[in-house]
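Sequence design from tokenized structure. All designs in this work follow the same two-part layout: the structure record, then the generated sequence. An example of the structure record is given first.
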């Protein structure tokens, strides 16, 4: 059974940094594309960043230049380095493995809370 587990959230002051981690288990192959989403209270879940095997990355305009998504050396791990955090970055952050040629459905982690105080 495929399972995504996030870690690394917490409380940080504005201008600070956090690093989120996500590990996907239950797969014998490497997932080509993984992503991070976030959902703030009262708002829709939004895409933060994606990464594809071979390196291409994409970022939401609101985080570009401050966040960095990367793959780990361990198969099916992904990180989100978040620098210069702002109060508006406060949200639950979710790891995502999208439906596609490799997966017959989308998979989500349980989420990790990031709170940025002003």
């Amino acid at each position: 059974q495929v399972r995504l587990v996030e870690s690394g959230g917490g409380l940080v002051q504005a201008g600070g940094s956090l690093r989120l981690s996500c590990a996907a288990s239950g797969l014998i192959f490497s997932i080509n594309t993984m992503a991070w989403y976030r959902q703030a209270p009262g708002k829709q879940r939004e895409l933060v960043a994606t990464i594809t095997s071979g390196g291409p990355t994409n970022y939401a305009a609101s985080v570009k230049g401050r966040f960095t998504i990367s793959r780990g050396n361990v198969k099916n791990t992904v990180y989100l380095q978040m620098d210069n955090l702002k109060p508006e970055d406060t949200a639950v952050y979710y790891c995502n493995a999208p439906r596609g040629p490799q997966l017959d459905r989308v998979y989500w982690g349980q989420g990790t809370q990031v709170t940025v105080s002003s």
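The CA atoms of residues 97 and 107 lie 5 Å apart. We note this feature because it recurs in several other targets discussed in the main text.
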